[in-house]
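Key result, reporting period 2: structure in, sequence out.
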């Protein structure tokens, strides 16, 4: 067993120390909740009758307090490809539960919106706060106190973090996350990206663009690029909250069905009434959170987790900030290049060795904590396994000794780069994050006059008018959580990519978001304090020289910002429900804390 790398140990110890008081309060709450969870025989008969009225032949079993009764919290809808397979899961899972003397009930559903559908649209302004809504919906589902364990069905962007926040507040119970897997690979990512740029330049029409997109996003399952959704699945593996190797097995296959069956059987065992109780609060500790960060850096995952990791960690009483994440990034080498960081997608990654290979490499190099309590084994090393069917029986084998594709997956001794590619920038423009794993080194440092915009649409208009044909730092402000809900700014990616391809030095600076799909243009994102609160971006003017330096970690301007009056934020927008999320915007805390109104209001 390799000795833990001193930097990983140092960051972990720092997180433990600064979380000491809040973690102690959380653990005490979970122990209290575990002690007060009612025996179902002690629940008032009227209450229990309501809970089992529609349960048919399971009524007697649910009423028996010795029977594990397991909650299903589902983010099913059939508009979202990743979640469409979940429609048939509950009935299957109930059968699987009966096989081991347990019962299951659908406790409730949560929203599941898709950033891929709403990007560039008004509805994107609800996206980040849907995480809080999902967490609250999950809490409502679990509040009936007739459950001994919880199965969380969710995959995509805000959905897994929201479900995890909810589950952690019921962390006295056992919990398993159950994915449904990625869709089959479509057209090559390079071909898709080329068509998008041609459309942005007006060289192909909308029909050609739609044909290209349909050839990419074409079937049930998760989108196959390594954005937030697949980064979520990677992190659930790194934290031991999946059955080993479950993340990237295709939907609607025999192996996927058997993994779901195994997850239900295991949940019955680790539930409060099971033979091997493993409450979630014991599984998700400081070491597990550090493992999530390590995995993010090793695989070049989504920058959205600079928001989500601090948020779900807070729900477990754990305090994490961007300095912790950066130190881990400087320590952990990049082992995977998955689109948009490389040419292959998550299916190719899985075929090359996938998460089992990554986990084993990290453990053998002392870069992850092995001594965490996983749902399926005794340590993280038990997650370093590849599920297979042997004569229709689910079993696990060791991951391959060598990568099946060294253009996509490499060992620690021969990484793609020596760090994880996520950096912290700071200076007189505040603090921001930048992901450089997909950015060529010659673009890591840019100093140029800026152009200041308040919307991404205004950037597109300036591009079409030819006003950005120069070295420039594009600033898009009033995109933070308190201003408009911090939408993704994906519409900027083709525009900025074209300018860079034309030979201009280009960078983006924003208090908004750009996920793991952001690509090859350097982007200083999540700037905090945000412009809405009078942050530095609100004082910038066209022509101010900005330096974005991912080598030295600098985000600064030569302008005298202190002498200027902050620009006024645009008025709040209405339509597509944005007005009813005003309480979320007003109460949101900063990006580095996780940009959550709910956690802030709860004092977490």
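The corresponding designed sequence is given below.
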């Amino acid at each position: 067993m390799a000795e833990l790398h001193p930097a990983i140990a140092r960051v972990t110890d720092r997180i433990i120390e600064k979380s000491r008081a809040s973690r102690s309060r959380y653990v005490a709450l979970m122990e209290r909740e575990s002690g007060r969870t009612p025996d179902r025989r002690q629940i008032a008969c009227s209450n229990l009758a309501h809970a089992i009225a529609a349960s048919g032949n399971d009524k007697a079993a649910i009423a028996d307090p010795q029977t594990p009764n397991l909650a299903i919290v589902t983010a099913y809808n059939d508009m979202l490809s990743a979640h469409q397979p979940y429609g048939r899961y509950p009935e299957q899972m109930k059968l699987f539960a009966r096989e081991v003397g347990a019962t299951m009930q659908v406790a409730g559903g949560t929203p599941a919106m898709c950033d891929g559908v709403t990007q560039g649209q008004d509805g994107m302004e609800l996206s980040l706060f849907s995480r809080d809504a999902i967490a609250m919906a999950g809490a409502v589902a679990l509040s009936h106190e007739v459950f001994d364990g919880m199965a969380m069905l969710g995959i995509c962007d805000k959905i897994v973090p929201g479900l995890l926040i909810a589950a952690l507040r019921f962390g006295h119970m056992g919990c398993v996350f159950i994915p449904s897997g990625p869709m089959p690979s479509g057209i090559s990512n390079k071909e898709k990206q080329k068509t998008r740029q041609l459309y942005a330049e007006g060289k192909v029409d909308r029909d050609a663009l739609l044909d290209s997109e349909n050839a990419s996003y074409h079937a049930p399952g998760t989108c196959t690029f390594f954005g937030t959704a697949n980064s979520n699945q990677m992190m659930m593996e790194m934290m031991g909250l999946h059955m080993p190797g479950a993340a990237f097995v295709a939907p609607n296959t025999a192996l996927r069905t058997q993994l779901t069956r195994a997850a239900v059987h295991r949940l019955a065992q680790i539930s409060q009434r099971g033979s091997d109780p493993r409450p979630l609060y014991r599984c998700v500790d400081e070491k597990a959170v550090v493992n999530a960060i390590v995995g993010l850096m090793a695989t070049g995952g989504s920058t959205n987790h600079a928001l989500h990791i601090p948020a779900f960690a807070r729900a477990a009483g754990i305090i994490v900030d961007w300095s912790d994440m950066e130190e881990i990034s400087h320590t952990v080498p990049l082992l995977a290049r998955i689109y948009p960081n490389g040419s292959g997608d998550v299916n190719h990654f899985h075929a090359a060795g996938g998460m089992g290979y990554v986990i084993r490499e990290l453990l053998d190099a002392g870069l992850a904590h092995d001594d965490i309590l996983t749902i399926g084994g005794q340590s993280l090393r038990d997650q370093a396994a590849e599920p297979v069917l042997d004569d229709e029986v689910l079993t696990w084998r060791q991951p391959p000794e060598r990568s099946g594709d060294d253009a996509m997956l490499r060992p620690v001794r021969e990484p793609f780069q020596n760090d994880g590619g996520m950096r912290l920038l700071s200076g007189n423009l505040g603090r921001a994050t930048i992901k450089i794993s997909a950015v060529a080194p010659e673009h890591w440092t840019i100093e140029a006059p800026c152009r200041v915009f308040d919307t991404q649409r205004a950037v597109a208009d300036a591009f079409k008018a030819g006003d950005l044909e120069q070295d420039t730092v594009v600033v898009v402000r009033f995109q933070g959580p308190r201003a408009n809900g911090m939408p993704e700014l994906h519409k900027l990616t083709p525009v900025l990519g074209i300018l860079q391809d034309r030979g201009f030095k280009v960078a983006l600076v924003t208090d908004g978001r750009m996920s793991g799909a952001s690509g090859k243009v350097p982007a200083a994102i999540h700037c905090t304090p945000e412009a809405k609160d009078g942050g530095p971006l609100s004082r910038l003017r066209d022509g101010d020289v900005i330096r974005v330096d991912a080598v030295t970690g600098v985000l600064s301007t030569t302008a005298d910002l202190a002498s200027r009056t902050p620009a006024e934020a645009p008025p709040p927008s209405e339509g597509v429900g944005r007005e009813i999320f005003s309480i979320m915007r007003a109460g949101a805390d900063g990006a580095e804390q996780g940009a959550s109104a709910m956690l802030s209001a709860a004092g977490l």
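The domain at 422-571 is CATH 3.50.30.80 (Glucose Oxidase; domain 1). The chain is about 40% helix and 15% strand. This case is discussed further under Risks and Mitigation.
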